[in-house]
Amino acid sequence: MKREIVVLWKFFRLRLEEDMVYRLNFILLLSSFIIYDLFGPVLMVVVYHVSEGFPNWSFWEVLVLQASAIIVEELWFLFGSRVLFELEQNITSGRFDIYLIRPLSPLFLLFSSSCFPYGLFTLFVGVFILGYALPHLNITLISFLFYLLFLCSGFLFLISLTILFSSISVFVVKNKPLRDTIFTLITYGKYPTNIFPKLLRLIFTFILPISLIAYFPAKVILGKLFGFLTLLPFLISLLFFAFSLLSWKVAIERYSSAGG
Amino acid sequence: MVAFRIIKNLAKSRLAYKFEFFGNLIFSILWILLLVVIWQAVFLFSNLESIEGFTFHDLIFYYIIIQLIRHGLDVDISYRVEQLVRYGNFVSFLLKPISFPIFCFLDDLSEKLVNIFLKILPTFLVFVLIFGLPPSTLTSFLFGIISVIFAYLLMVLIDFMLSTLIFFTKSSHGIFDVFQTGLHLIDGILFPLIFFPEKVYSILLYLPFPYLTFFPTLVFLNKADFLNVLGFQVVWILLFFPLSFFLWHLSLKRIEGAGV
Q1: Which residue of B has its CA nearest to A200?
Q2: 3-state SS of chain B?
Q3: How far apart are CA B66 and CA A11, in angstroms?
Q4: What pLDDT, on a 0 to 100 scale, did the predictor assign at position B152?
Q5: Chain segment B100-127, per-residue pLDDT in tens
Q6: Please, is B5 exposed, middle or buried when counting C-beta atoms within 10 Å of its C-beta (0-12, 13-18, 19+)?
Q7: Is B198's Cβ below 8 Å from some Cβ in A?
Q8: CB distance from B184 to chain A under 8 Å?
Q9: What is the pLDDT of residue B16?
Q10: Which residue in the set A43, A177, A187 is minimally distant from B23, CB to CB?
Q11: pLDDT score recorded for residue A96
């Protein structure tokens, strides 16, 4: 485990140094990511400015939802967002074989070498919005601790989705539609699941559980999730993770490298 | 005649990327559907007939038309210039018997013509089949088309001015990204700008950005005075036309390359 942490840290530093070569460009790109993060909160401000908003969600509660989505998305931005792109590049150039002969898990190497340092900075957009909204709500320490656990479960779901799509990518190689699909699912996950039609609500909770990204974490911290229901989303994310690892195992076993 | 041949040949090469365009369009449709779900929940929960003159049906067509215009106006001259400069192919373009800014314009125009006739119009017809006719009249539809043409010219000038920055900075990718992301916050893609608080909206009216997508969409929907919008677009074009050529000539002096 210690070796993995050292490798991850070295890759992080390397990527950061690469991006910092052009300082102004780094700051401008970071600004563009921050502006992008503000799309959802700005839309919510406008929605609550012109109407009463969403059923069962006050303005401050919906800000917590948005902040949760940004935190989970940015954690994934840091550790998983470039994985599919890197995988495509490595498979097409034949460099992916190197990952398979190194003395570390290919999946871990893929994730650590693809880390995207911008996520570490943009994470604070979510933290800032959360800090701004929480004083307006009644939050207990227990619900906050559960909230942190649920944020981890949302992050685990996105990582699982990335692994699952990486497995598909091993076969299809060109994966831009898969990358776009993840971004679309994240965007859908930024809004309350209860506003969607019933069928989509079921899909977003049990089949493609994008509710884990922000809806369930926000419900937990707001004290709107009780009893067994509190554990259910967490179990779903673990199941999804196990399934994604299995799919990766199958994909790697069938990987035939460039030239067959 | 030369311009026609250039457009024809470039349009043929553009057809090679139709699948990527359709991929982008599918994700745009998913984005529109998400916004439809959001606003449907808002209208139902707040029991509203209309918001700032927009009924729910108006809003659906607002998002459809603005997304299609956005795809139509997706000018990427700046990106292409950056690639030419970065990989050292720019100087060879200066030797060609056609002005580089005019070539950039024709190149982009060829792409737009392919997009409009083979992709945007068919997609619009599909939306009409699903959601019914837009709340437009034949006149407002024709005025909308004229307004979009002027919006396109304005966008070309803005993007061309942006592209000249590549000659003043070492890496300008960040500038383009900040501009594009920031633009989406104030060009009406997220929501009709009139939903902003009055003070913000009145400031935006004095900027060129609402005249790129927001007002042309309103002209289509018969919700804005065509001549007024056209007047502002012409003023901005007359302002930016000499400015872009001034910046272009300024940047030509900074070109460095083998034998230059």
Answers
A1: B37
A2: CHHHHHHHHHHHHHHHHHHHHHHHHHHHHHHHHHHHHHHHHHHHHHCCCCECCECHHHHHHHHHHHHHHHHHCCCCHHHHHHHHHHCCCHHHHHCCCCCHHHHHHHHHHHHHHHHHHHHHHHHHHHHHHHHCCCCCCHHHHHHHHHHHHHHHHHHHHHHHHHHHHHHCCCCCHHHHHHHHHHHHHHCCCCCCHHHCCHHHHHHHCCCCHHHCCHHHHHHHCCCCCHHHHHHHHHHHHHHHHHHHHHHHHHHHCCCCCCCC
A3: 41
A4: 93
A5: 888 888 888 888 888 787 778 877 888 8
A6: exposed
A7: no
A8: yes
A9: 55
A10: A177
A11: 85
pLDDT tens digit sequence for A46-57: 999 999 989 889
Q: What is the mean pLDDT of residues A207-219?
A: 91
Give chain A as a 3 state SS string: CHHHHHHHHHHHHHHHHHHCCCHHHHHHHHHHHHHHHCHHHHHHHHHHHHCCCCCCCCHHHHHHHHHHHHHHHHHHHHHCCCHHHHHHHHHHHCCHHHHHHCCCCHHHHHHHHCCCCHHHHHHHHHHHHHHHHHHHCCCCHHHHHHHHHHHHHHHHHHHHHHHHHHHHHHHHCCCHHHHHHHHHHHHHHCCCHHHCCHHHHHHHHHHCCHHHCCHHHHHHHCCCCCCHHHHHHHHHHHHHHHHHHHHHHHHHHHCCCCCC
Q: What is the reported pTM?
A: 0.87
Are residues B191 and A43, on separate chains, in Cβ contact within 8 Å?
yes
Cβ-nearest to A24 among B174, B184, B196 = B174
